[in-house]
Amino acid sequence: MSSNDSSEVIRQCLQVLESITSDSSVPRNIRRSVNEIMDILNNESEPLFLRAASSISILEDISNDPNLPLHTRTLIWNLSSQLETIPVDE
């Protein structure tokens, strides 16, 4: 996967994360965590694979929250899958 492909994955993930933060049915603590993920992904001083790994870790924690709406849980699983496509060797 080229660096442009990885950047595109990040861009798409940020769009989905933005939609989660604007969804009023999502609990506040989840939206806070999603904002934290957005900050991590936008932090270009860290390597891309490290930003992806940190984000995946937080997403896994969020996905286990019992108050998470089902449609949001599906989005979070999809985000994790997308971020897992980013190679470590970049």
From TrEMBL:
InterPro entries recorded: Ta0600-like_sf, UPF0147
Query: Could you tell me which Gene3D superfamilies the record lists for this protein?
Result: Ta0600-like
Q: Name one Pfam family in it.
A: UPF0147
| Top-level taxon in the UniProt lineage | Archaea
Sorted alphabetically, which HAMAP family does this protein's record hold?
A: UPF0147 (MF_00342)
Question: Which family does this protein fall into?
Answer: Belongs to the UPF0147 family.
Protein name (database record)? UPF0147 protein DKM28_13350
Source organism (scientific name): Methanosarcina mazei (Methanosarcina frisia)
